[in-house]
Amino acid sequence: MTDEAEEMMAENQPSDASEDTAQDLSVGSETPEVAAAGGEGAKHEERRPVSAQVAEFQKRLEGESSGEVKVRLALDFMKEALAGSGTPRFKDFWDCRRLCVDLFKESIAPKVRAQMWAEYIELSTEARRLKEILDEQSAFAIEQIELAILSFERDLEQYPALLQEAHDIALPKESEALRGRFETYNNLQRELHFLNNLATRINALRKEIIKTEMRIRIKNKLLERLSNCGDRVFPRRKELIKQVSDEFLTNVSNFVAAHFHADEIDGLPLFVLREEIKMLQQAAKVLTLNTHAFTETRQKLSKCWDKIRVKDKERKREVQQKRVEFKQNFDLVMEQIKVFAEACQGQITADESNKQASAIFDFMRTVQLGKEDIRDLREEISRARKAIVDREREAEQQRQQKERELETKRRDQINALKDKLAALLKSDEKVLLDELETQRQALWQEFEEMTMSKVEKQIIERLFKQLKEAMMERKEKALLSLSEDDLKALEQLQAHLTERKERRKEIKNQLEQYRKVLGGSGFDFEKAMTYRELIETEKQSLDKIEASIAELEERIEEIEG
Q: For the chain, which residues score pLDDT lower than 70?
């Protein structure tokens, strides 16, 4: 058995008072004289050691001379032994009972002796009854303990299967020092958790066996079975604890050697190392380590923690020094920002404000400032530029308002043009085509002067096309309503008009040729006069043709209606 198991068994064994259950308590028919005679013969028997309470009681009896008082003290002591808290003190009861038998030989009044003897018989019967009850309770407790040991033995037989059902341990996965070793720790600690549970059950059962009243032979048998179970648990547990302790101590030592050299700390930032130490300390609480490994790792990590605290103080001191420098630089920048803010309250332009703000930002880059200082300075610059930003926003709002007004006006004009075109489309047939054409041309000129989108143009142009088609339909209806004579006259006039237009075209071409010849050749005065006369003649002919064409068009329009 291991040292740990032996230590657990080194507790005080119970007294063997229960061995006295074999005594004969049948004293109901016994008389005081017979009992006294038996007590007289018992003087020659070898006395067993008595307890401290009985020894004290014997000394007390020696100080009394009255037999009645001695018997009364003996009976009271027997009552106290049975009625005490916890388990009755049967050994003290039996020892006092033997003494009480001898005391009944002394001189006592018969009546008092008979009463005391009846009380003596009653106490003996009560002791027998209590002993039977305790024996039953002890038998039940022994049965339950045997069942618990049997269950424990079955668990040991199913050790591999139960070990597979063990839960994984909760190690800090972010730890760099333990990276790559989580599976090893998990397997070892899972088995250790299972063995720790078994060891706890063994200790609990051993304590239960020791405190339970039973025969020494049965108790030793149960303890032996429990010891055999412990031989299968404690050595393996001790071996696993050593493996986990050595592995963890190695990982912690490697971590310390990698990042802590004398007074120097390198490899990782302080806050990362601080968190790593916390995770290693947490792992030390999760893992089952022996005293040496736990103490060694605690001391190593404590030293590392102290070094980090020293470095942290140095860093804070440097930060404090930088803060003083940051404050000075902050004040320098703020002086420039105040000047800039006063300028922004004036009539400075946006471009000029942007240039001055950029100059301040450039100066900020040349000095050392904290993150919060930079943020505050940027906010101050934004507040300084707020006046200019507000002016720009107001100007932009006014510009947008004007644009909205112009857009509204433009849309109103477009809608008005649409309404006019729609009114012309719905105009009465009594309105002459010439008047419609005049209005259409006026609206077209208005349309060309407007600014509108492509879609809007397409919509307006579609309305103009509809108006033109409506005018052509009216003209066709007028032609269809003419008489045959009017139609023949109209055809002759249109043919004559076509001839006149052809003649006008010829005259224009001829005039153009004369002008080119006159303008491009160095003629003498006579030839030049000749060409000028020709040009004048052609102009007269063109005027006559124009007048004839106008007359023909008027007549055609009269006929068409």
A: 1-48, 84-86, 262-264, 267, 428-433, 473, 475-487, 489-490, 520-526, 558-561
> Where are the domains positioned within the chain?
17-155, 163-289, 324-379, 400-480, 484-560
- Residue 522 backbone dihedrals phi, psi, to 5 degrees: -90, 65
Which single residue is written with the structure tokens 């998990």? Answer: 186
Fold of 484-560: Helix Hairpins (1.10.287)
- What residues have CB less than 8 Å from 284, skipping those under 6 apart? 248, 294, 297, 298
Which pLDDT value is given to residue 481?
Answer: 59
Global pTM value: 0.42
- Give alpha helix (H) positions in 426-524: 433-449, 454-480, 484-520
Q: What are phi and psi of 265, to 5 degrees?
A: -130, 125
Cα–Cα dist 316/318, whole Å: 5
| Token digits of residue 250 | 């190695």
What residues form DSSP beta bridges with 261? Answer: 264
What does the pLDDT read at residue 475? 66
Nearest in space to 248 (alpha carbons), one of 219, 211, 290: 290
Task: Tell me the sheet residues that pair with 265.
Answer: 260
> CA 344, CA 352: separation in Å to the nearest integer?
9
Would you state the pLDDT for residue 516? 80
- The angle, 0 to 180 degrees and rounded to 10, between the axes of the packed helices 270-286 and 216-259 is 170
Q: What is the pLDDT of residue 159?
A: 72
User: Which one-letter amino acid corresponds to residue 40?
Assistant: E
